[in-house]
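Quick log. Single chain, no ligands specified.
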Amino acid sequence: MRGADFMQDTLFSTRSLESFVPGDHPLRPIRELLNTALAQMDRVFDAMYAKSGRDSIAPEKLLRALTLQVLYGIRSERLLVEQLGYNLLFGWFVGVSIQHDPWDHSTFSKNRDRLIEHEACRVLFEEVLDQARSKGLLSSEHFSVDGTLIRAWASQKSFVPKDGAPPPSNGSKSNPEVDFRGKPRTNDTHESRTDPHCRLYRKSKNTEAIPSYMGHALIENRNGLVVDHRLTEASGTAEREAALEMLAAQPGNSRKTVGADKAYDSADFIEACRTIGVTPHVAQNNARRASAIDERTTRHPGYAISQVVRKLIETIFGDAKQHGTLRQLKQRGLDRADQVFALAMTVVNLRRLPKLMADSG
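-> predicted structure:
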């Protein structure tokens, strides 16, 4: 007998959000790791808010929601809040019950500066990393470093002269047509009206210069976990400068190694690495000049190992751009862009840690 096509709602429900999530769902161990990290941030959260007044949306929920946005590559906070309203899995992860509507999307904007001021995303990254450190999952001797170009939330036409009149335009005021072709533009003479911190930069001579930031990550070679990160203005020296800063910040006095690609093959970088006790396992760039790396380094077996392992860092950036939120930033300004990048690097570790911890016992 054919059944009728109808749906009958009940007045009360006896199921909890927890019961809708399968026991082996991959978000379960990630949520456990995240909640452990957030529990260690009580002092940071207490300092962020006044002692009296109306209760705010819990910062733990905001950070869980932002983490979820990176995990699933949700393109906007408006869409994220919409998902929290009907996606039971998302509501369970963030902590929004069935009986309550999620907050307005503008809550993220109102709290963003507060999170930036207290470096909440940087602290969250460190708390997650501490869990890996307590399990002995981090190498303190062998590292790999690399940088990636991240497209800013700015257009070519937004770049105008710092001094003097902007180029002629016509059309609508909200989206004018600007004729800048054939006119030289550099970061010394021009800047973006919408995001003054981004810079025109191109990966090679065969590609166009685009408004960009540059993200940098340092991973340890044992398990490929991110141990430090930076987001800077894009420049030809930013990769090497950020790498030295991150390497110098690593604890311990033992000799260290760092694997890197040809972009780091410069005499200044090699010398600076050795000055701080780091052996540079940098790929040789013999295309136009003699490499700063010679047989004193390349003859060791560890050099070949570093050259293999260092390529794993590319998967971090590739996944964050293909499936995450780094293909093009939706925030403007160096501080806000850095917050997005910090969350992306935190999610890298949150994805890898459950299996590593399970294997380590």
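The chain is about 40% helix and 15% strand.
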